[in-house]
User: Fold this.
Amino acid sequence: MPATTAYDLDLLTARFKALSDPLRLRILDRLRGGERCVCELTDALDAGQSLLSFHLKTLKDAGLVSDRRDGRWMHYTLVAGALEEIEAFMGSLRKLTRERDWKPVCCA
Assistant:
């Protein structure tokens, strides 16, 4: 079955790996309310700054969050386009599952 949309599977893999950690999911959950200073995240998530920085870097490297500096503080926000790409990919899988004629295909 031909794919209707080409996806960057390496990028999607990196994003899914970044989403595979509970603390990173909690960070994203906090960011859904809008931009947050790293100091806010540290307090809200009861996580040390070095641990939080590690996880924020992972999310940033996967393109899920962006940052900006304001004085000595870093502020983080969700990258909507990245989340939309994940949603589109998952939606395409769901659509294919519904549309596919599930007759077994065998190599015999």
About this structure: The longest strand covers residues 65-70. The first helix runs from residue 9 to 18.
